[in-house]
Amino acid sequence: MRAVCNIGVLGGKLGLVSRGVATRSPQQVLSGVLVEARGERLELSATDMELSIRTRSPAEVEEPGRLVIPARIFNDVVRSLPDGMLVLEHDVGEGVAVLRSRENEYRIRAYAAEEFPALPEFSAEGSFKVSGEALVETVEKVSRSYSRDETRPVLTGILISFEDSRLRMVTTDSYRLSIKETELATTFEGKREAIIPARAMQEVGRIFSGSDEERIEVQLSESQALFRIGDVLLGTRLIAGNFPEYGRLIPASFEREISVDRDEIVGSLRRVNLFAQRQTPPVPVSLVFSEGSVEVVVRSGEVGEAHERIPASSEDDFTISFNPGYLLDGISAVDTEKVVFKFNEPLKPGLIVPNGEEEPDFRYLIMPMRDPART
């Protein structure tokens, strides 16, 4: 194999595909990037057997070939090189990748391409296109509340459904629940639904944000999802299992509906959280409502107290406490000038929605906490 390519372009592509490399695997070949020289390009692939990323970089291929190069050293060498052209060769006899730039030469021990697993191919049949901006925005709204607990795999994913012209995403970690619905220009026949690892959807967002594309091509099968963004193809295994019946978790009605200026309460929460987060685990933040205002309170036995009062549409006295980080996550995902809180009892879940929407496109259900400082 012998190919000549631009160092800067290759470095950008290599940095992107390296996000799919396995960081901990008994299979050494998964710590590398598969490089295939053919036609007028280098095809770069990486996978950890859960997620795969493929892209291509322009090249003058003088002799086609395939090999797997350890990702970390490959990436580091290419990024450290000055601008210019790189010659990439495969010394089959010694089993090394040879990188040449100007008068410099680097020889990296490589793996056989035959050891690298076959990756799924994208098929236009059965695929569909969606607005990349809408898809990524929806992911951002719900990505705060997926679980990081690998013992409950279903909760580490995002439940994604396409129906008619609606895209819906749902996440929960048992302490909060995020639901975001987005209207799309595309109309779908039937309903398509899957639980996709949150990590994979966040990677889709990163790739789209760094591209010039407007649409993302999606292909869903029984066991995997593929996303094509320009010359990048991301594949991911779907998560098997039953997602919680989240519709049952949201109360049919609420006794209180209170609106507060979004920016004001976000600012208050960030400041009082300076007291809450210095204690492990963080102490609750209490929302103490009275007629026309809410007092945002944190009492830490180790640090001290913080009190802030801001206007609210509340009409009577009511107090409820939450994990301050979880509360801030939900409010921050609201785009309207005011945020609406819906409550029943102090130890029942509260709902956060945008202001002025009869059928809100974003809902954030959050479980309250007992505040030991108030009991």
From TrEMBL:
- Is Cytoplasm there in the keyword field? yes
GO terms for CC?
cytoplasm; DNA polymerase III complex
Which domain of life does the UniProt lineage start with?
Bacteria
Its predominant location is cytoplasm
Compartments it resides in: Cytoplasm
Keyword line: Cytoplasm, DNA replication, DNA-binding, DNA-directed DNA polymerase, Nucleotidyltransferase, Transferase
Q: Tell me, what's a Pfam family for it?
A: DNA_pol3_beta
Q: Where is the DNA polymerase III beta sliding clamp N-terminal domain?
A: 10-120
The answer, when asked if Cytoplasm is one of the entry's keywords, is: yes
* SMART domains, alphabetized: POL3Bc (SM00480)
Q: What job does the chain carry out?
A: Confers DNA tethering and processivity to DNA polymerases and other proteins. Acts as a clamp, forming a ring around DNA (a reaction catalyzed by the clamp-loading complex) which diffuses in an ATP-independent manner freely and bidirectionally along dsDNA. Initially characterized for its ability to contact the catalytic subunit of DNA polymerase III (Pol III), a complex, multichain enzyme responsible for most of the replicative synthesis in bacteria; Pol III exhibits 3'-5' exonuclease proofreading activity.
How it assembles, according to the record, is: Forms a ring-shaped head-to-tail homodimer around DNA.
- Name recorded for this polypeptide: Beta sliding clamp
- What species was this sequence derived from? Rubrobacter xylanophilus
Give the gene that encodes this protein: dnaN
